[in-house]
Amino acid sequence: MTIQLNDAGKRFNRDWIFRHVTYVFQEGRSYAITGAIAGSMNMSEGTCEWTVVDRKAEDAETYKYISIVAPYLEVIEEMSVKEFLSFHASFKPLISDISIDEIIRIIGLEKAADKQIRYYSSGMKQRVKLAQAIFSDAPIILLDEPCTNLDKTGYDLYHRLIKNYCSNKLIIVSSNDENEMDFCEERISIMDYK
Fold first, then answer.
1. Is the dihedral of CA 191, 3, 30, 172 positive or negative?
2. C-alpha to C-alpha distance for 51 and 57, rounded to whole angstroms
3. Whose CA is closest to 138, among 40, 19, 4, 1?
4. pLDDT at 50
5. Which class for 152: exposed (0-12), middle (13-18), buried (19 or more C-beta within 10 A)?
6. Which of 37, 50, 77, 85 could form a disulfide with 57 if both were Cys (CB 3.0 to 4.6 A apart)?
7. Position 38 confidence tier, pLDDT thresholds 50, 70, 90
8. d(C-alpha 105, C-alpha 102), whole Å
9. Which sign does the torsion angle of CA 138, 77, 41, 177 carry?
10. Per residue, what are the HEC states of the chain?
């Protein structure tokens, strides 16, 4: 799986956030994007091509290949983490050799597994977001400020999850926090594309 940006740019009103970005992101590598970026967004100019095993993916198919963690994404708070992960797996399969109960244990929420997510702390909710993304059987993981609301133990969990379950994935981290991106092999400063 590769993602290729060709002369990509994003403008808000009259100001360009970035412009003329041409870059190839490859599966099995990790990238950090730093600078003033505002969440997931469509480009104002240029193209983005998704290649899946030597064929271009249609835009309508791309959701199958991507999982995302971001502070602005919500979880269904009326569900328990078990229900939420089961629901999520119904449209985006999880890694096949790990059960939902095992995922919940790995992220340290086994004592709260049957509580509704609405009763979770913000850090617990972030662990759920990490789990649904990292344990999805998708080759690309987008991490937008992935450790928001996590304490030191949560940061440690994040690094273990990346190390143990994402080695073959294309990882793109959007952050300005060194601890969220210290494992990334390549860094791209969006400020270089003004």
1. positive
2. 6
3. 1
4. 77
5. exposed
6. 50
7. very low
8. 5
9. negative
10. CEEEEEEEEEEECCEEEEEEEEEEEECCCEEEEECCCCCCCCCCEEEEEEEECCEECCHHHHHHHEEEECCCCCCCCCCEHHHHHHHHHCCCCECCCCCHHHHHHHCCCHHHCCCEHHHCCHHHHHHHHHHHHHCECCCEEEEECCCCCCCHHHHHHHHHHHHHHCCCCEEEEECCCHHHHCCCCEEEEHHHHC
How many residues comprise the chain? 194
Q: CA–CA separation, 82 vs 117, rounded Å?
A: 10
φ, ψ at 118 (rounded to 5°)? -60, -20
Q: Which two tokens stand for residue 93?
A: 């399969």
